[in-house]
Amino acid sequence: MKFILLSFAFLCTFSLSAQQVIGFEDRVPEEFTSPDKKSLSLSNRYYKEGKKSLEWNFVPGSTMYVALDAPQVLNNKTEATHGITLWIYNEKSQPDSLRFEFLNAEGKVSYWFTYRLQSPGWRACWIGFKSMRGDKTDKAIASYRIVAPNRKGRVFFDRWKFPEKAMNLRTTPDMQIDYNSLAVGRDLWHWCRVWEWEQYAYDIPRPAKLTEQQRRDLKTIEERLNEALTPPAASTVAVAVKKAMATYAKADIYPSGSGFTGAPLLAPDELHRNQGELSWNDLEAMLTGFAYDAYCNKSYEAESNYFTVWDYAIDQGFAYGSGMGTNHHYGYQIRKIYTTAWLMRKAILKSSRRDDILKTLLFWSALQETRRPCAEIRDEMLDSWNTLLQPKLISAMMIPDECARVQALYGLSRWVSGSVNCTPGTIGGIKVDGTTFHHGGFYPAYTTGALATVSDYIAMTGGTEFVPSLEARRLLASAFTAMRNYSNLIEWSTGLGGRHPFSGKMGGADIKAFAQLALSGDLSGQSGEFDRALAADYLRLMNGKNSPETRFFKEKGIQPAKAPQGFFVYNYGAAGIHRRANWMVTLKGFNTNVWGSEIYTKDNRYGRYQSYGSIQIMGYPSRKASGYVEEGWDWNRLPGTTTIHLPLVLLDNPRSGTLMARSTENFAGTSSLEGRNGMFAMKLKEADYKNFTPDFVARKSAFCFDNRVVCLGTGISNSNAQYPTETTIFQSEYRPGKAFISVMGKEIDKPSFGAKLAGNSSCWLRDGYGNHYLVLEGLVRVQIAEQQSAKDKDKSPTKGIFASAYIVHGLAPKDATYAYSVLIQPTAEELAAAQKDPGYSILRRDRQAHIVFDRASGVTGYAAFEAVSLPEDEIVADIAPETMVMHRTAEDGTLIVSVCDPNLHIKEKTYTTPEPSAPSFKTLHLRGAWSLAVSNEKVKIQLTGDVTEITVTCRHGQLVEFRLKQ
């Protein structure tokens, strides 16, 4: 029930800092007046809250006044955040408007706006003072009024708030108030642009008649949609029908006047479920269940209910031209409305409400955006693909006029082709290195599903005139290939998990996408029947499971691909992937442009350290099989990270909202040589938030050579004298008799163990999963213990027995260091050889540089944190600051060199920015006279005496590799 905050005492003390929630349940509020006293009354004919609304009967010249007890004085801040929200019911479409005017003490209008009455039913009226019209010179508001159009009529008001002191930043412009600019000012809020896009006109002509090819193509897509959208199993249908009936009962829908009464339908941001109000997911549940029942069970009652719900939804504001106050993220709650509308399309096309339903479907699918090519700068594309691409296709295919349908499909396919491009900066979409961005960062958890919807679209339109371009399909394939590279088999590491630290993986739709893309044509350019490489990847990911696609590819002689091998650089995520055999190592950092983790109040609340130089080995096809489970997990000890070991209460998210901390340091990322071996380097600098230690710094590196990883740290310093700083070597679940550890050659297989060791050339450890560690220095703690922890979502306690090893740097360390190496799943011969000679040399390890030479591969890796001179190096004389260099001498005597600046060089530091990565220039000097063995436009060489100056143009965090000869 609503309530009225309009007592005399309240009004005498009312100020702009307070907020009126004005109800219309008991009486017309005293502050609402009109010269015709009988024109205002309460009505139960329609309501959007409680059971009554305020009815205003007007004639030409009518005005309704709302008095304020004291002037409400705006300033620059409150003008930007305050406004008014209410809902208005209009019984009949009219070509005119209501005018809201806000007056100063002299009765002059300072702010005003108009509200169009073109749509019947309930429509939101949300607008901030910032978006209103008027001269706005006098910011003291003494009262306000609503001026009627020049005719006789009536409207109904409900859910009235004034002043609304925190206008929703995603307030949605719509037909009623199309100049509300709070949301449109940010391209991010793509949800809120549906009315803006509705103003677009097709620049693709509507064909006068269809060609035979177009008719065949329409039929092909229709048949594919029929197959893809076949109802689920009978048991699933039964559950959906039951849910629809239960929700329908709660909705309590009854015809009233020209519309309906029933539970108010609202966007989640203003929803009060405890008062019986409903949202889009409830609408989806009703339409889905009734559609299944009507289609599968031939239920006449369900079909009748289906159309009643549609009438109710449109009357409540889920309609063409309506923004419902704010519509952000609505796509996640309405997808089944479209898939089941396809099942009901014949009934819809015969319905008397056909036009209203189809206009609603087209509008909320945002198909209107595709009347023009996809904008080059268009953020949050993954949301659009994931939630609205299929609705767009269904809506286009439900257009009754075939010629208009073809026009819409041409526009949609062109838009899809344009949307699958390399997006600039940190806005959403696919980057040049194959990473996929959402929320301003590399985010596999949003990649899964989103890319698959594009592949679904390609599969639906394959072989027709409406299939997306070859260029788009190739780029999409590159993103899936990247996903294949950073997943082992289908799961990725905690470091890449975003706010889903223990659940990130490829879904069935992602795996199927490899087959869909393979069947869309030979993307390799070799004019084959299909793409053989993608087909082989598909068979590997299916892991022996059967499907029509697996049978087809096997019949064509395709064998499952081997696991990816090599080192893969993903510096849009400050990440690298090192792979051999069937294991994978993920290396992860963060910098000024790359956030370290996404932390919500109820997701990943303890995930601060995900990118503090994590080196996570997935030696088996899943996190769990590799020893990483949440129950009992010590969130301070992700392998490879250097952290301050905090109690969970201090590690918890210090903010009430989202935290996506970045560093003030630019240097963090990876590089590789010949795509086989690679390295990671990072200037670690903790951010400045509550319970953080902003002077916490370190310089970290990891050099990956075959199954060897050399891990170095220097300059580890902070002022936290209460909690110790540590570098974690490993943490994995202890499994008796299966996953036990070894310490200095002695196997430890018991649930309680602890030891302190001094790192040295004989300090060998083994985790429970076949990986061996040589710790060269420092105080090393090794333990097997039951750990008490908590789940990241709800803080519920967990426990588990884990084996851990970590280097203790102590309280408030000053320039602490570490050095250890990892031998990943070695053979007995490899282990014995490494215990005699680890096979690498640490050439330098200080504040300026970390340098390692690997004898087996002949590769030398340089992490230059500062400008560094190398007087003892036989080849490299000096390197520019914040540069990664790798080289080896090839069998033909040429020097293979890679140079990488992992910094994206994006100046604007915001949530997301379209500012593109800028080029940078890195210089190093080599001893002797060198020239390019093969020309490279990114490399310039100048010889001065017996020193060769090499200047490399770097961009997008991508390495530049070249060969030199003497």
TrEMBL record:
<dbReference type="InterPro" id="IPR011013">
    <property type="entry name" value="Gal_mutarotase_sf_dom"/>
</dbReference>
<dbReference type="GO" id="GO:0005975">
    <property type="term" value="P:carbohydrate metabolic process"/>
</dbReference>
<dbReference type="GO" id="GO:0005576">
    <property type="term" value="C:extracellular region"/>
</dbReference>
<dbReference type="InterPro" id="IPR015176">
    <property type="entry name" value="Lyase_N"/>
</dbReference>
<feature type="signal peptide">
    <location>
        <begin position="1"/>
        <end position="18"/>
    </location>
</feature>
<feature type="domain" description="Lyase N-terminal">
    <location>
        <begin position="19"/>
        <end position="178"/>
    </location>
</feature>
<dbReference type="InterPro" id="IPR008929">
    <property type="entry name" value="Chondroitin_lyas"/>
</dbReference>
<dbReference type="InterPro" id="IPR015177">
    <property type="entry name" value="Lyase_catalyt"/>
</dbReference>
<feature type="domain" description="Lyase catalytic">
    <location>
        <begin position="208"/>
        <end position="547"/>
    </location>
</feature>
<dbReference type="InterPro" id="IPR008979">
    <property type="entry name" value="Galactose-bd-like_sf"/>
</dbReference>
<dbReference type="Pfam" id="PF02278">
    <property type="entry name" value="Lyase_8"/>
</dbReference>
<keyword id="KW-0456">Lyase</keyword>
<dbReference type="Pfam" id="PF09093">
    <property type="entry name" value="Lyase_catalyt"/>
</dbReference>
<dbReference type="InterPro" id="IPR003159">
    <property type="entry name" value="Lyase_8_central_dom"/>
</dbReference>
<comment type="subunit">
    <text>Monomer.</text>
</comment>
<keyword id="KW-0106">Calcium</keyword>
<dbReference type="Pfam" id="PF09092">
    <property type="entry name" value="Lyase_N"/>
</dbReference>
<dbReference type="InterPro" id="IPR014718">
    <property type="entry name" value="GH-type_carb-bd"/>
</dbReference>
<dbReference type="GO" id="GO:0030246">
    <property type="term" value="F:carbohydrate binding"/>
</dbReference>
<protein>
    <submittedName>
        <fullName>Chondroitinase</fullName>
    </submittedName>
</protein>
<dbReference type="GO" id="GO:0042597">
    <property type="term" value="C:periplasmic space"/>
</dbReference>
<dbReference type="InterPro" id="IPR011071">
    <property type="entry name" value="Lyase_8-like_C"/>
</dbReference>
<dbReference type="GO" id="GO:0016837">
    <property type="term" value="F:carbon-oxygen lyase activity, acting on polysaccharides"/>
</dbReference>
<dbReference type="GO" id="GO:0006027">
    <property type="term" value="P:glycosaminoglycan catabolic process"/>
</dbReference>
<comment type="similarity">
    <text>Belongs to the polysaccharide lyase 8 family.</text>
</comment>
<feature type="domain" description="Polysaccharide lyase family 8 central">
    <location>
        <begin position="576"/>
        <end position="823"/>
    </location>
</feature>
<dbReference type="InterPro" id="IPR039174">
    <property type="entry name" value="Chondroitin_ABC_lyase"/>
</dbReference>
<keyword id="KW-0732">Signal</keyword>
